[in-house]
# Entry
Amino acid sequence: MTTTVASPMYAGHFAGRSAVITGAGRGIGLAVGRAFAESGASVLLVDRDAVVEDAAEQLRADGLDAHGIRADVTDEAAMRGVFAEADERWSSLDVLVNNAGIITISDLDDLSLDDFQRVLAVNTTAMFLGCREAAPLLRRSRSGVILNAASGQARQGFIFTPHYAASKFGVIGLTQSLAKELAKDGIRVNAYCPGIVQTDMWDYNDREWGRRLGHYAPGELIREWIDAIPLKRPAEAKDIANLLLFLASDAAEYITGQAVNIDGGMFMN
Ligand code: NAI
# Structure
Protein backbone atom coordinates (compact mmCIF):
# COMPACT_ATOMS: atom_id res chain seq x y z
CA MET A 1 0.00 0.00 0.00
CA THR A 2 1.46 3.34 -1.07
CA THR A 3 1.30 6.31 1.32
CA THR A 4 -2.03 8.12 1.27
CA VAL A 5 -2.08 11.39 -0.65
CA ALA A 6 -5.55 12.88 -0.02
CA SER A 7 -6.34 14.75 3.15
CA PRO A 8 -8.90 12.77 5.23
CA MET A 9 -11.20 15.80 5.02
CA TYR A 10 -12.14 14.70 1.48
CA ALA A 11 -12.91 11.07 2.45
CA GLY A 12 -15.90 9.95 0.39
CA HIS A 13 -16.46 13.47 -0.98
CA PHE A 14 -16.06 12.35 -4.59
CA ALA A 15 -17.95 9.04 -4.26
CA GLY A 16 -20.02 8.49 -7.39
CA ARG A 17 -18.01 11.10 -9.30
CA SER A 18 -15.57 10.62 -12.16
CA ALA A 19 -12.28 12.28 -13.09
CA VAL A 20 -9.96 12.26 -16.12
CA ILE A 21 -6.38 13.33 -15.35
CA THR A 22 -3.75 13.83 -18.06
CA GLY A 23 -0.01 13.43 -17.59
CA ALA A 24 -0.93 11.00 -14.82
CA GLY A 25 1.71 8.31 -15.27
CA ARG A 26 4.02 9.96 -12.74
CA GLY A 27 4.67 13.15 -10.78
CA ILE A 28 1.88 15.60 -9.98
CA GLY A 29 -0.68 13.91 -12.25
CA LEU A 30 -0.27 10.53 -10.57
CA ALA A 31 -0.63 12.10 -7.10
CA VAL A 32 -3.77 13.91 -8.30
CA GLY A 33 -5.22 10.69 -9.70
CA ARG A 34 -4.51 8.86 -6.46
CA ALA A 35 -5.98 11.69 -4.38
CA PHE A 36 -9.27 11.75 -6.31
CA ALA A 37 -9.49 7.94 -6.18
CA GLU A 38 -8.75 7.92 -2.43
CA SER A 39 -11.58 10.44 -2.01
CA GLY A 40 -14.05 8.10 -3.69
CA ALA A 41 -13.84 9.03 -7.39
CA SER A 42 -13.53 6.68 -10.31
CA VAL A 43 -10.49 7.91 -12.26
CA LEU A 44 -9.09 7.56 -15.76
CA LEU A 45 -5.34 8.24 -15.87
CA VAL A 46 -4.05 9.42 -19.25
CA ASP A 47 -0.38 9.55 -20.31
CA ARG A 48 1.60 9.11 -23.50
CA ASP A 49 3.97 6.82 -21.59
CA ALA A 50 3.22 3.13 -20.93
CA VAL A 51 4.05 3.80 -17.26
CA VAL A 52 0.40 4.88 -16.90
CA GLU A 53 -0.78 1.28 -17.09
CA ASP A 54 1.42 0.27 -14.13
CA ALA A 55 0.31 3.39 -12.26
CA ALA A 56 -3.37 2.46 -12.64
CA GLU A 57 -2.59 -1.15 -11.72
CA GLN A 58 -0.92 0.04 -8.50
CA LEU A 59 -3.99 2.13 -7.58
CA ARG A 60 -6.27 -0.86 -8.21
CA ALA A 61 -4.00 -3.04 -6.06
CA ASP A 62 -4.67 -0.51 -3.28
CA GLY A 63 -8.43 -1.04 -3.74
CA LEU A 64 -9.03 2.16 -5.72
CA ASP A 65 -11.14 2.60 -8.86
CA ALA A 66 -8.60 3.54 -11.55
CA HIS A 67 -7.92 2.80 -15.20
CA GLY A 68 -4.98 3.81 -17.34
CA ILE A 69 -5.11 4.82 -20.98
CA ARG A 70 -2.17 5.61 -23.23
CA ALA A 71 -2.74 8.74 -25.30
CA ASP A 72 -0.78 11.77 -26.44
CA VAL A 73 -2.74 14.87 -25.42
CA THR A 74 -1.75 16.64 -28.66
CA ASP A 75 -3.36 13.91 -30.78
CA GLU A 76 -6.96 14.90 -31.60
CA ALA A 77 -8.09 11.37 -32.48
CA ALA A 78 -6.46 9.91 -29.38
CA MET A 79 -8.16 12.50 -27.16
CA ARG A 80 -11.53 11.73 -28.78
CA GLY A 81 -10.80 8.13 -27.82
CA VAL A 82 -10.13 9.11 -24.20
CA PHE A 83 -13.49 10.87 -23.82
CA ALA A 84 -15.32 8.12 -25.74
CA GLU A 85 -13.96 5.76 -23.09
CA ALA A 86 -15.11 8.13 -20.32
CA ASP A 87 -18.57 8.29 -21.96
CA GLU A 88 -18.76 4.52 -22.12
CA ARG A 89 -17.76 4.13 -18.47
CA TRP A 90 -19.74 6.95 -16.86
CA SER A 91 -22.00 8.65 -19.50
CA SER A 92 -20.84 11.96 -18.01
CA LEU A 93 -17.73 13.49 -16.42
CA ASP A 94 -17.32 15.48 -13.21
CA VAL A 95 -13.66 16.54 -13.25
CA LEU A 96 -11.08 17.08 -16.00
CA VAL A 97 -7.51 17.82 -14.90
CA ASN A 98 -5.41 19.05 -17.85
CA ASN A 99 -2.08 18.38 -16.15
CA ALA A 100 0.25 17.06 -18.90
CA GLY A 101 3.12 19.43 -19.53
CA ILE A 102 6.72 19.54 -20.73
CA ILE A 103 9.63 21.94 -20.45
CA THR A 104 12.90 22.44 -22.30
CA ILE A 105 15.61 24.89 -21.32
CA SER A 106 17.59 26.79 -23.92
CA ASP A 107 19.03 30.21 -24.67
CA LEU A 108 17.37 32.12 -27.48
CA ASP A 109 19.98 31.38 -30.15
CA ASP A 110 19.64 27.61 -29.65
CA LEU A 111 15.86 27.48 -29.23
CA SER A 112 14.44 25.80 -32.32
CA LEU A 113 11.03 26.57 -33.77
CA ASP A 114 10.19 22.88 -33.31
CA ASP A 115 10.96 23.08 -29.59
CA PHE A 116 8.96 26.28 -29.18
CA GLN A 117 5.95 24.83 -30.98
CA ARG A 118 6.15 21.47 -29.20
CA VAL A 119 6.03 23.10 -25.75
CA LEU A 120 3.08 25.28 -26.82
CA ALA A 121 1.36 22.24 -28.37
CA VAL A 122 1.52 20.12 -25.20
CA ASN A 123 1.10 22.80 -22.54
CA THR A 124 -1.53 25.03 -24.15
CA THR A 125 -3.04 23.79 -27.42
CA ALA A 126 -3.69 20.32 -26.02
CA MET A 127 -5.49 21.94 -23.09
CA PHE A 128 -7.99 23.50 -25.49
CA LEU A 129 -8.44 20.09 -27.09
CA GLY A 130 -9.07 18.42 -23.72
CA CYS A 131 -11.61 21.09 -22.73
CA ARG A 132 -13.44 20.92 -26.06
CA GLU A 133 -13.66 17.13 -26.12
CA ALA A 134 -14.68 16.89 -22.45
CA ALA A 135 -17.29 19.68 -22.51
CA PRO A 136 -20.26 17.58 -23.71
CA LEU A 137 -19.63 15.10 -20.88
CA LEU A 138 -19.00 17.80 -18.26
CA ARG A 139 -22.33 19.45 -19.21
CA ARG A 140 -24.07 16.21 -18.17
CA SER A 141 -22.56 16.49 -14.67
CA ARG A 142 -24.31 18.37 -11.86
CA SER A 143 -21.03 20.11 -11.08
CA GLY A 144 -18.47 19.94 -13.88
CA VAL A 145 -14.97 21.17 -13.08
CA ILE A 146 -11.89 21.79 -15.26
CA LEU A 147 -8.47 22.29 -13.62
CA ASN A 148 -5.59 23.46 -15.81
CA ALA A 149 -1.85 23.18 -15.02
CA ALA A 150 -0.20 26.60 -15.17
CA SER A 151 2.97 27.47 -13.20
CA GLY A 152 4.85 30.19 -11.36
CA GLN A 153 5.99 30.88 -14.92
CA ALA A 154 2.44 32.03 -15.65
CA ARG A 155 3.22 34.88 -13.22
CA GLN A 156 6.77 35.69 -14.22
CA GLY A 157 8.93 34.32 -17.05
CA PHE A 158 12.25 32.78 -16.01
CA ILE A 159 15.42 33.03 -18.07
CA PHE A 160 15.97 30.38 -20.83
CA THR A 161 12.32 29.31 -21.02
CA PRO A 162 10.45 31.89 -23.15
CA HIS A 163 8.41 29.11 -24.79
CA TYR A 164 7.44 27.53 -21.44
CA ALA A 165 6.52 30.92 -19.94
CA ALA A 166 4.47 31.81 -23.04
CA SER A 167 2.68 28.46 -22.84
CA LYS A 168 1.81 28.91 -19.15
CA PHE A 169 0.68 32.55 -19.48
CA GLY A 170 -1.54 31.20 -22.26
CA VAL A 171 -3.09 28.70 -19.86
CA ILE A 172 -4.44 31.54 -17.72
CA GLY A 173 -6.04 33.31 -20.68
CA LEU A 174 -7.62 30.07 -21.86
CA THR A 175 -8.87 29.35 -18.33
CA GLN A 176 -10.48 32.79 -17.88
CA SER A 177 -12.14 32.72 -21.29
CA LEU A 178 -13.60 29.23 -20.83
CA ALA A 179 -14.72 30.04 -17.27
CA LYS A 180 -16.87 32.81 -18.75
CA GLU A 181 -18.25 30.66 -21.55
CA LEU A 182 -18.94 27.49 -19.56
CA ALA A 183 -20.45 29.11 -16.44
CA LYS A 184 -23.90 28.90 -18.03
CA ASP A 185 -23.45 25.10 -18.15
CA GLY A 186 -22.54 24.93 -14.47
CA ILE A 187 -18.90 24.16 -15.31
CA ARG A 188 -16.18 25.88 -13.28
CA VAL A 189 -12.71 26.35 -14.81
CA ASN A 190 -9.63 27.18 -12.74
CA ALA A 191 -5.87 26.96 -13.13
CA TYR A 192 -3.17 26.02 -10.60
CA CYS A 193 0.29 27.59 -10.45
CA PRO A 194 2.88 25.42 -8.66
CA GLY A 195 6.29 26.86 -7.86
CA ILE A 196 8.88 24.13 -7.35
CA VAL A 197 7.59 20.57 -7.06
CA GLN A 198 9.78 17.53 -6.46
CA THR A 199 9.19 15.45 -9.61
CA ASP A 200 11.21 14.23 -12.60
CA MET A 201 10.56 17.63 -14.20
CA TRP A 202 12.30 19.37 -11.35
CA ASP A 203 15.33 17.04 -11.61
CA TYR A 204 15.60 18.04 -15.26
CA ASN A 205 15.24 21.74 -14.39
CA ASP A 206 17.92 21.51 -11.68
CA ARG A 207 20.34 19.85 -14.10
CA GLU A 208 19.73 21.97 -17.22
CA TRP A 209 19.11 25.37 -15.61
CA GLY A 210 21.95 24.66 -13.18
CA ARG A 211 24.36 23.96 -16.07
CA ARG A 212 23.37 27.11 -17.94
CA LEU A 213 23.50 29.29 -14.83
CA GLY A 214 26.85 27.83 -13.75
CA HIS A 215 25.64 25.66 -10.84
CA TYR A 216 27.15 22.33 -11.76
CA ALA A 217 26.59 20.33 -8.56
CA PRO A 218 23.25 18.49 -8.52
CA GLY A 219 20.82 20.14 -6.14
CA GLU A 220 22.83 23.37 -5.87
CA LEU A 221 20.39 25.51 -7.85
CA ILE A 222 17.34 24.00 -6.17
CA ARG A 223 18.85 24.76 -2.74
CA GLU A 224 19.39 28.38 -3.73
CA TRP A 225 15.82 28.74 -5.00
CA ILE A 226 14.31 26.98 -2.01
CA ASP A 227 16.17 29.38 0.23
CA ALA A 228 14.26 32.21 -1.43
CA ILE A 229 10.87 30.54 -0.73
CA PRO A 230 9.23 31.92 2.44
CA LEU A 231 8.11 28.41 3.54
CA LYS A 232 11.65 27.07 2.87
CA ARG A 233 10.73 23.84 1.12
CA PRO A 234 9.70 22.68 -2.34
CA ALA A 235 6.19 21.36 -2.83
CA GLU A 236 5.46 17.66 -2.79
CA ALA A 237 3.07 16.43 -5.47
CA LYS A 238 0.51 15.75 -2.74
CA ASP A 239 0.39 19.47 -1.86
CA ILE A 240 -0.82 20.18 -5.39
CA ALA A 241 -3.23 17.22 -5.29
CA ASN A 242 -4.92 18.54 -2.14
CA LEU A 243 -5.38 21.99 -3.69
CA LEU A 244 -7.09 20.34 -6.65
CA LEU A 245 -9.38 18.32 -4.37
CA PHE A 246 -10.47 21.59 -2.79
CA LEU A 247 -10.97 23.36 -6.13
CA ALA A 248 -13.04 20.44 -7.43
CA SER A 249 -15.05 20.09 -4.23
CA ASP A 250 -18.49 21.52 -3.45
CA ALA A 251 -16.78 23.87 -0.96
CA ALA A 252 -15.29 25.72 -3.96
CA GLU A 253 -18.59 26.13 -5.82
CA TYR A 254 -18.18 29.93 -6.05
CA ILE A 255 -14.60 29.82 -7.43
CA THR A 256 -14.14 30.05 -11.19
CA GLY A 257 -11.79 31.74 -13.65
CA GLN A 258 -9.00 31.84 -11.06
CA ALA A 259 -5.33 30.90 -11.19
CA VAL A 260 -4.26 29.77 -7.74
CA ASN A 261 -0.61 29.95 -6.68
CA ILE A 262 0.72 27.00 -4.68
CA ASP A 263 4.38 27.76 -4.17
CA GLY A 264 5.21 28.33 -0.48
CA GLY A 265 5.00 32.07 -1.08
CA MET A 266 7.45 32.17 -4.01
CA PHE A 267 5.10 34.38 -6.04
CA MET A 268 2.65 36.74 -4.43
CA ASN A 269 1.06 38.22 -7.56
P1 NAI B 1 6.56 15.19 -14.95
O1 NAI B 1 7.52 15.40 -16.08
O2 NAI B 1 7.05 14.55 -13.69
O3 NAI B 1 5.29 14.37 -15.48
C1 NAI B 1 4.59 14.79 -16.62
C2 NAI B 1 3.82 13.62 -17.20
O4 NAI B 1 3.14 14.12 -18.37
C3 NAI B 1 4.73 12.48 -17.66
O5 NAI B 1 4.24 11.24 -17.18
C4 NAI B 1 4.68 12.56 -19.18
O6 NAI B 1 4.81 11.29 -19.83
C5 NAI B 1 3.30 13.17 -19.41
N1 NAI B 1 3.21 13.84 -20.71
C6 NAI B 1 4.09 14.73 -21.24
N2 NAI B 1 3.71 15.05 -22.48
C7 NAI B 1 2.57 14.37 -22.74
C8 NAI B 1 1.72 14.28 -23.86
N3 NAI B 1 1.97 14.94 -25.00
N4 NAI B 1 0.62 13.49 -23.79
C9 NAI B 1 0.37 12.78 -22.66
N5 NAI B 1 1.15 12.81 -21.57
C10 NAI B 1 2.24 13.60 -21.61
O7 NAI B 1 5.94 16.64 -14.66
P2 NAI B 1 5.27 17.23 -13.33
O8 NAI B 1 6.33 17.91 -12.55
O9 NAI B 1 4.43 16.22 -12.69
O10 NAI B 1 4.37 18.41 -13.96
C11 NAI B 1 2.97 18.31 -14.16
C12 NAI B 1 2.43 19.68 -14.59
O11 NAI B 1 2.75 20.65 -13.60
C13 NAI B 1 3.03 20.19 -15.90
O12 NAI B 1 2.03 20.84 -16.65
C14 NAI B 1 4.09 21.17 -15.43
O13 NAI B 1 4.37 22.16 -16.42
C15 NAI B 1 3.44 21.74 -14.20
N6 NAI B 1 4.40 22.32 -13.25
C16 NAI B 1 5.39 21.55 -12.65
C17 NAI B 1 6.30 22.13 -11.78
C18 NAI B 1 7.40 21.37 -11.11
O14 NAI B 1 8.25 22.01 -10.42
N7 NAI B 1 7.48 20.04 -11.23
C19 NAI B 1 6.21 23.57 -11.46
C20 NAI B 1 5.14 24.27 -12.12
C21 NAI B 1 4.27 23.65 -12.98
Notes: The helical segments are 27-38, 51-61, 76-90, 113-139, 162-182, 200-213, 220-227, 237-248. Residues 22-23, 25-29, 47-49, 72-74, 99-102, 122, 149, 151, 194, 196-197, 199-202 surround NAI (CB under 6 Å). The domain at 13-195+236-259 is CATH 3.40.50.720 (Rossmann fold).
